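Hi everyone,

Forwarding the result from last night's run.
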Amino acid sequence: MTPEDVRRIALQLPGAIEKSHFGKPDFRVRDRVFATLPKVGDAVIKLTRDQQEMMCAAEPALFRPVDGGWGKKGWTRVTLAAADERTLRSALVTAWRNTAPVTLRKAFDLAGG
């Protein structure tokens, strides 16, 4: 997958917009970041610690915690070259759900998202 794929999938999610975080593209819902594109070949997504542990254990070539304190808060690096569309979409939706307000998540669930 590519940064353009991340952008396309992220911006399909309700209320998602693209902004910039320290000069790098990020994706937000209600001004809260759920994903970033910090460097070529990687995306970073906001997971819970439990989600992070599960995803990293299941697919260590694809997911790994961000170094340092942010990784301990659930921020997780995604190696785009190892991702397929279905897995990337699922990871981005999970990060979006972790960030979006309850009302927006419920509307998305009712719409079949």
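The chain has one domain: 3-102.

Cheers,
N.
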